[in-house]
Design goal:
It comes from Glycomyces paridis. Keywords: DNA-binding. It holds the Pfam family AlkZ-like. InterPro entries: AlkZ-like. This is Winged helix DNA-binding domain-containing protein. β2 and β3 (90-94) form a beta hairpin. The chain is globular and about 65 Å long. Among the domains are: 79-201, no CATH class; 274-370, no CATH class. The strands form 4 sheets. It has a 5-stranded mixed sheet. It has a 3-stranded antiparallel sheet with strand order 1-3-2. A 3-stranded antiparallel sheet has the order 4-6-5. 42% of the residues lie in helices and 17% in strands. The chain is α+β, with helices and mostly antiparallel strands and 375 residues long. It has helices at 9-19, 30-37, 45-48, 50-53, 68-77, 98-112, 114-120, 124-137, 146-155, 163-175, 194-197, 205-220, 225-232, 236-246, 282-285, 345-362, and strands at 40-41, 80-84, 90-94, 144-145, 179-181, 190-193, 249-253, 256-260, 274-277, 313-316, 319-328, 332-339, 366-370.
Length: 375
């Protein structure tokens, strides 16, 4: 383990931006971005498309990165699936990686769900019955909307399969390899039969944890052990064993041991870089243990509001400096911004360049950029 003297919070952020392919050489297509990252947090589907798109080369004239249609096509075809995996939340993952991720983490995630199981009055029979019903109902390429899934469960005698109770049943069925996302229907998410949508194959839990660790530290390093365990819902002992078996390199910086795969990128010359990322971009939610390194080093953490005005984040040189909101109009894109501090002239110019890349991605001819910052 080395202890470089120049590995400042800003340098760590730049390294992570290169590891994630937000900076540097972009990947050939959004599918490559999904495969590199492994999982993209996707509570809100439309904004989540930005994460793989920003890491892929432009696929249309005037775009700075891949367009949203390329991501939609992957969902429609089943090349990637949007499901509950790793943590009890939505992620979009390559279909070929889903069995591996579930082998590594599903049992631990279901343990975290046990409190809600008790609150909802779910026993193992109820969970098992709902899982079987959903697997049977989606067989034969029948893709069910949430409302259709609710009706099927009610007909099978499952009590009150609505609201949060329904969501909890669906999550159990996803974690137990009964269902995953299907082809959207009328703009709505659907559920498909897992075995019909996901390539066959088995992997041991140990192999799965090692592969997940490799993917995480190659695509998100440098990061801590706890960054990984919280991202993947794993025990520290299992994560440490995987890191040792992989022989991952490490550095000590900012009072932490940080692991990584690959080489540290060369320091880039030039002015500031501003990126407009979605609110659950992997630059934000991959690092819960080292969250203080995610926030911009020039502003005390106390200056960042507990509840930001907007959910999507503005990154200045790879660290969060504020938030943004985009509102498409007929011919223009209105981008409202809030920053934790004022910007220099060079930073404002970088902000405008970042907003203009966003305008092109939304397919608008004009940009209306609105600036605001903390006093």
């Amino acid at each position: 383990m080395s202890t470089p003297t120049d590995l400042t919070p800003r340098a760590i952020a730049a390294w992570r931006a290169h590891s994630q392919r937000l900076w540097g050489e972009r990947l050939a297509a959004p599918m490559d971005a999904f495969e590199h990252l492994g999982a993209v947090q996707s509570q809100e589907y439309q904004p989540s498309k930005l994460t793989p798109a920003m890491r892929a080369v432009p696929d249309a004239q005037a775009l700075a990165f891949a367009g949203p249609a390329a991501v939609d096509a992957l969902i429609d075809s089943g090349a990637v699936v949007r499901t509950h995996v790793l943590r009890p939340t939505w992620h979009t993952v390559p279909a070929g990686d889903l069995r591996m991720m579930l082998a590594a983490s599903a049992e631990r995630v279901e343990q975290l769900m046990a409190g809600n199981d008790r609150a909802f009055g779910f026993d193992e029979w109820t969970i098992g019955r709902s899982v079987d019903v959903l697997a049977d109902a989606t067989a034969g390429a029948r893709h069910l909307t949430r409302e259709e899934a609710s009706a099927v469960l009610a007909e099978a005698g499952i009590s009150d399969p609505t609201g949060q109770r329904l969501g909890h049943m669906l999550a159990h069925a996803e974690l137990r390899e009964a269902i995953c996302s299907g082809t959207p229907k009328g703009g709505k998410q659907t559920y498909a039969n897992f075995d019909e949508r996901v390539p066959a194959g088995r992997i041991s839990r140990g192999e799965a944890v090692r592969e997940l660790a490799r993917r995480f530290f190659v695509s998100r390093g440098p990061a801590t052990v706890k960054d990984f365990t919280r991202w993947a819902t794993l025990k520290v002992v299992d994560a440490k064993a995987a890191i040792e078996e992989l022989g991952l390199a490490s550095v000590e910086a900012a009072g932490r041991v940080l692991y990584f795969g690959g080489e540290r990128p060369e320091a880039a010359a030039g002015g500031p870089v501003v990126d407009f990322v979605q609110g659950f971009d992997e630059m934000l939610c991959s690092y819960t243990d080292s969250k203080d390194l995610v926030l911009h080093h020039s502003v005390p953490r106390s200056r960042f509001p507990d509840r930001p005005r907007f959910n999507p984040a503005i990154l200045l040189d790879g660290q969060v400096i504020g938030n943004w909101k985009a509102t498409p109009k007929r011919e223009s894109l209105v981008v409202e911004t809030w920053r934790a501090r004022g910007f220099t002239a060079a930073e404002i110019a970088a902000l405008r360049r970042g907003a203009d890349r966003l305008r092109a991605w939304y397919g608008k001819d004009e940009l209306d950029l609105r600036l605001d910052h903390a006093a």
